[in-house]
């Protein structure tokens, strides 16, 4: 019986047209944003006659962001397809857990690239790292734009995580308040 209640409640949440439209729109938005992040990062390189070439494959944090962006785009696309054909829609907990995991992965990759961008612009004088953006300005600007796109993906997944949390937690009755417990005793 509880699975019938879960399926009925989940499907009624999915039939909320505004919620479903927002969910699908955000998931569809993630795909081009992630693709643009990947494209911009992978093609970002700059050559300096004195210091040599710098490209994304030289920086582990950028490789990590590219991998996470690919995972985000793939997951978002599969989630939209699953929503359209309705095969996994009744499993609200699956989207909840998946959205949480993806959001956390986007946070970690964004933090890694943010640190790289910070060090590229400011250096670290304590360990004698000089700033690199004076020499590789085009590369640094490309990293900034990729980081902004990645942050937009994060915003989408934060909202998606809230939507999926709403879907999961609306399956359950609210906990008893102390007033309810006292009324039952009398």
Automatic annotation (TrEMBL):
InterPro entries: CASP/CASPL (IPR006459), CASP_dom (IPR006702). It is a multi-pass membrane protein. Pfam families: CASP_dom. GO terms for cellular component: plasma membrane. Homodimer and heterodimers. Belongs to the Casparian strip membrane proteins (CASP) family. This is CASP-like protein.
């Amino acid at each position: 019986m509880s699975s019938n209640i879960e399926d009925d409640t989940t499907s009624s949440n999915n039939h909320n047209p505004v919620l479903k439209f927002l969910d699908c729109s955000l998931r569809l938005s993630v795909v081009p944003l992630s693709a643009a992040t990947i494209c911009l990062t992978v093609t970002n390189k700059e050559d300096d006659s004195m210091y040599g070439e710098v490209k994304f494959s030289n920086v582990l944090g950028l490789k990590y962001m590219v991998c996470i962006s690919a995972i985000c785009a793939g997951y978002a696309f599969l989630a939209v397809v699953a929503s359209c054909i309705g095969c996994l829609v009744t499993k609200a907990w699956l989207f909840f857990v998946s959205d949480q995991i993806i959001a956390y992965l986007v946070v970690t990759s964004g933090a890694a690239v943010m640190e790289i961008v910070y060090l590229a612009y400011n250096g670290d004088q304590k360990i004698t790292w000089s700033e690199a953006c004076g020499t590789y300005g085009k590369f640094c600007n490309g990293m900034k734009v990729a980081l902004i796109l990645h942050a937009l993906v994060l915003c989408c997944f934060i909202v998606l995580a809230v939507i999926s949390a709403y879907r999961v937690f609306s399956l359950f009755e609210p906990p008893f308040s102390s007033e309810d417990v006292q009324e039952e005793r009398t």
